[in-house]
Input
Amino acid sequence: MTYLCYIETLDGKKDPLEIEVKKIELRDRIKAALKSSIVLFLLAVGFVFIPILHFILVPAFLIASIVVFWMTFSITHKITTRALKCPGCHKEISLKSQSPEFPIRFSCPECQAVFYLNKS
Ligand SMILES: [Zn+2]
Output
């Protein structure tokens, strides 16, 4: 799926561009959510054996594992476009894989200019 977006510089200059966005399948969302929350869950189980502190640590890490699971599971799309052209110096800027929650703020590693990527 393609999103029509624009890069906006801090001085208000806008450049249109297209961003590729991919829907994450339910199975992959569950896998990613389990992967990110399993460590917290295992720590919660491990803290059962620590006297007194387990009254705080076990519920805290159980809640944290549920929150992390839910936050990861609720990411339904990710940006698959890997690079953008800097409107300032025209060099390539790499984009990390992330949820398309606009506006996305980023800066050019070459000219240090700050940009906003926004949906049209
Ligand atoms: Zn630049």
